[in-house]
């Protein structure tokens, strides 16, 4: 998608700060051992790679990632996959676990506090702008466009917003804007969301993306930290304060989303429930998926493991290694099994006479012979017993596994062990 850029991108004077400390409890057992941003997505990547790749592709070369909840796998992924920034090129990549920098008893108390506690790390870099990002959404966006709007509008804060049907915005923070997209009110999860001027059936929902001038941000964070009644949160405290006492402007995602020729719509997903996570992955198996992961002009960077190619073996009737409308990552072996509309992550083994249909399979899973799995999410490292059938008997599935209202079964090794098979 062609965009008009300034001769010297503002992104070079910006720091991206990714808030990646959330648990993501709605993903149930998928986040028992990892933070939501570290959850696998799309076969090779993790959820956090999308925000980081957007920053990288936008031209931002200073990045900080604040971690907190069960952060080991996330930190390990960042160390392996994002360690190519060089200080001699004025680049930096800081992993910032909650380390009680302000008080020996205080972890990150909110999203704003997660920035404030690292002010002494951020300020010496001297970034003119701060781009605050959530680390748990799937989308492609050029932050340079948002930075340009922020500077041109003279805003104190610019907030990334999605246009959504008005009554679907009840679960978001919603912006009430005037005709120039200046925010006149910010309402958290309203029962009756305000519509957009000129388009009353739509509402502007916050994406959790904020742009500030760094000095302004640090001043207001210090003021907030001194307020004993604050919950130290951008959405609950910082943004409402600026809306009332300063200038807050909405930036519409459609203005800066990155789309290839095959992507008809602006794509943004919160894969924060088991159903949404399953659907987001399965959607990638469509002939022309809504999210183009093959767009080399806006690559999704990640830790690239050295793996052999995927392998399909056996060519006997009833025992043919095959995959239809599926994504298969490296080091997978489909041995006399068949998969349909399925996503296999790195290092899976699917053995003879097994069938997978609409399955999202995380790395290093072994499916033994004669298993039949449909409408499932299988956690990393699970060993599926021979002959196991999931997705055909709702009552039995609900007794053995985590089954959602939409009929998606989440399978972990602990659940398998309890079966005693």
From TrEMBL:
Where does the Glucose-1-phosphate adenylyltransferase/Bifunctional protein GlmU-like C-terminal hexapeptide domain start and stop, copy by copy?
A: 308-411
Q: Which positions does UniProt annotate for alpha-D-glucose 1-phosphate binding?
A: 108, 173, 188-189, 206
Q: Does Nucleus show up as a keyword for this record? A: no
> Any idea which UniProt keywords this protein has?
ATP-binding, Carbohydrate metabolism, Glycogen biosynthesis, Glycogen metabolism, Nucleotide-binding, Nucleotidyltransferase, Transferase
Domain Nucleotidyl transferase as annotated: residue spans: 17-285
For the site labelled Could play a key role in the communication between the regulatory and the substrate sites, the residues are 68, 107
Question: What does the UniProt function comment say about this protein?
Answer: Involved in the biosynthesis of ADP-glucose, a building block required for the elongation reactions to produce glycogen. Catalyzes the reaction between ATP and alpha-D-glucose 1-phosphate (G1P) to produce pyrophosphate and ADP-Glc.
Give the protein name, as stated in the record. Glucose-1-phosphate adenylyltransferase
Please name the source species: Rhizobium aquaticum
């Amino acid at each position: 998608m062609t965009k008009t850029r300034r001769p010297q991108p503002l992104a070079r004077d910006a720091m991206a700060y990714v808030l990646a400390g959330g648990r993501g409890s709605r993903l149930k057992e998928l986040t028992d051992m990892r933070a939501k941003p570290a959850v696998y997505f799309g076969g090779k990547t993790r959820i956090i790679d999308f925000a980081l790749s957007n920053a990288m592709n936008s031209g931002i070369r200073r990045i900080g990632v604040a971690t907190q909840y069960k952060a080991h796998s996330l930190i390990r992924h960042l160390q392996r996959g994002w360690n190519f920034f060089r200080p001699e090129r004025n680049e930096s990549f800081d992993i910032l676990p909650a380390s009680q920098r302000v008080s020996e008893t205080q972890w990150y108390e909110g999203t704003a506090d997660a920035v404030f506690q690292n002010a002494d790390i951020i300020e010496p870099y001297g970034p003119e702008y701060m781009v605050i990002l959530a680390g748990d959404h799937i989308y492609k966006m050029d932050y340079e466009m948002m930075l340009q709007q922020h500077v041109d509008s003279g805003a104190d804060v610019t907030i990334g917003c999605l246009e959504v049907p008005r009554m679907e915005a009840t679960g978001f923070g919603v912006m009430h804007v005037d005709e120039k997209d200046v925010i006149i009110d910010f309402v958290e999860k309203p029962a009756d969301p305000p519509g957009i001027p000129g388009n009353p059936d739509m509402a502007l929902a916050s994406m959790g993306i904020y742009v500030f001038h760094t000095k302004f941000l640090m001043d207001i964070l210090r003021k907030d930290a001194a307020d004993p009644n604050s919950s130290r949160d951008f959405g609950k405290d910082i943004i409402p304060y600026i809306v009332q006492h300063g200038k807050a402007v909405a930036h519409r995602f459609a203005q800066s989303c990155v789309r290839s020729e095959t992507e008809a719509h602006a794509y943004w997903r919160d894969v924060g429930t088991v159903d949404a996570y399953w659907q987001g992955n399965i959607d990638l198996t469509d002939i022309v998926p809504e999210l183009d992961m093959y767009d080399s002009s806006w690559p999704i960077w990640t830790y690239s493991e050295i793996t052999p190619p995927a392998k399909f073996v056996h060519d006997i009737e009833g025992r043919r290694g095959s995959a239809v409308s599926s994504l298969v990552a490296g080091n997978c072996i489909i041995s006399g099994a068949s998969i349909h509309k399925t996503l296999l992550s790195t290092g899976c083994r699917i053995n003879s006479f097994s069938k997978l249909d609409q399955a999202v399979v995380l790395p290093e899973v072994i499916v033994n012979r004669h298993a039949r799995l449909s409408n499932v999410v299988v956690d990393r490292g699970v060993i599926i017993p021979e002959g196991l059938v999931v997705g055909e008997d709702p009552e039995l599935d609900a007794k053995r596994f985590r089954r959602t209202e939409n009929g998606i079964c989440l399978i972990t090794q602990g659940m398998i062990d309890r079966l005693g098979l």
